[in-house]
Design goal:
The chain is of the alpha/beta class and 318 residues long. It has 2 domains: 187 residues, HUPs (Rossmann fold, 3-Layer(aba) Sandwich), CATH 3.40.50.620; 112 residues, no CATH class. It contains 9 helices and 12 strands. It has a 5-stranded parallel sheet with strand order 3-2-1-4-7, with helices on both faces. A 5-stranded mixed sheet has the order 9-8-10-12-11. The protein has a two-stranded antiparallel ribbon with strand order 5-6. Strand 2, helix 2 and strand 3 form a beta-alpha-beta unit. The longest helix has 21 residues. It starts with 5 loop residues before the first strand and ends with a strand. The C terminus is likely disordered.
């Protein structure tokens, strides 16, 4: 079989990237497997990172019979993902480190690694598809398995990245991927999916933030329009109080959208203000006049003893 060219496959040690690499080998590509070392966890096992993930990726490459390397991208990861994670929380916004990693690392630094090795293309185990349009441009499409579709996580890819990327499992259902892993005799066939943050052991993002950015641990109050204290928050790190993030509300019986907040300033955390839709109209006017940080957010349930409008909207940090 003539070669279809060379491809550097990002191998996390999971079933998706393992099957992707094996399929590409069967299709006639010259495959090189590469396990990206992104964080220093000092031997801690966590999802796609750690000794077990690295060993699984190496074993799959050995079974399939293609070269394998470990690529140290920790400095790139620190600069583009960890630093951004902290900066976004400081600004009161919810970061998306996995999407950031895809854009800056898996199709940024990893693509540069392929260039260093003189390899034509890169491949991952993402559940997306790509196609070339009649005008020659590339399009990113949703994965065949809609329950596993990851096109949103790769929305930032441009023509340069898409023209060199291969998504070998994007046209498969997850059950088919696992069935192929069984047929290939891969030890990761039944390995569970990893969905937690690779850099936060046990998936505890708040604890991780508290360790690397203790200034985000300032406590503060959640108050209503009359200044009544409804609850207390432990800061951006302790409760991940940021725009768009969901968590269990300590002051409420339900699972609210957490208060939206603007950038923190000063030695103490500013209080978070909650207002219902009617009250928010006046704040909209104030916002137009003073330029305060105003953000809309889906309503969440108020404490059962508060009465009145049962839907609260967190508006701004005072």
């Amino acid at each position: 079989m003539s070669s279809k060219g060379s491809v550097l496959v990002a191998m996390s040690g999971g079933v998706d990237s393992s099957v992707a690499a094996y399929l590409l080998l069967e299709q006639g590509f010259e495959v090189v497997g590469s396990h990206m070392q992104l964080v220093h966890l000092e031997g801690v096992e966590h999802g796609c990172c750690g000794p077990a993930a690295r060993a699984d990726a190496a074993e799959v490459a050995s079974i399939a019979g293609f070269p394998f390397e470990i690529c140290d991208l920790t400095l790139d990861f620190d600069e583009h993902v960890i630093d951004d994670f902290v900066t976004e929380h400081e600004a009161g916004r919810t970061p998306n480190p996995c999407a950031r990693c895809n854009g800056e690392i898996k199709f940024g630094a990893f693509l540069r690694r392929a260039d260093e090795l003189g390899i034509d293309r890169v491949a991952t185990g993402h559940y997306v598809r790509s196609e070339r349009a009649p005008d020659g441009s590339w399009r990113l499409l949703r994965g065949f398995d809609r329950s596993k579709d990851q096109s949103y996580m790769l929305h930032m890819l441009g023509q340069r990245e898409l023209s060199r990327a291969i998504f070998a499992v994007g046209g498969l259902a997850k059950t088919e991927t696992r069935a192929l892993a069984e047929r290939f005799g891969l030890p990761v066939a039944s390995k569970p999916d990893s969905q937690e943050l690779c850099f936060a052991p046990s998936g505890d993002a708040g604890r991780f933030l508290g360790q690397i950015a203790p200034h985000l641990m300032r406590e503060g109050e959640v108050v209503d329009m009359d200044g009544r204290v409804l609850a207390h928050h432990g800061g951006a790190a302790a409760g991940c109080r940021s725009i768009g993030e969901r968590s269990r509300g300590r002051a409420y019986r339900h699972r609210p959208r957490l208060p939206r907040s603007g950038p923190a300033s000063g030695p103490a955390e500013r209080p978070l203000l909650c207002a219902n839709r009617r009250e928010r109209r006046s704040l909209d006017a104030d916002h137009a006049a003073c330029g305060a940080g105003l953000h809309a957010v889906p309503p969440f349930s108020s404490p059962p003893d508060q009465g009145g409008d049962s839907h609260l909207v967190t508006v701004l940090r005072l």
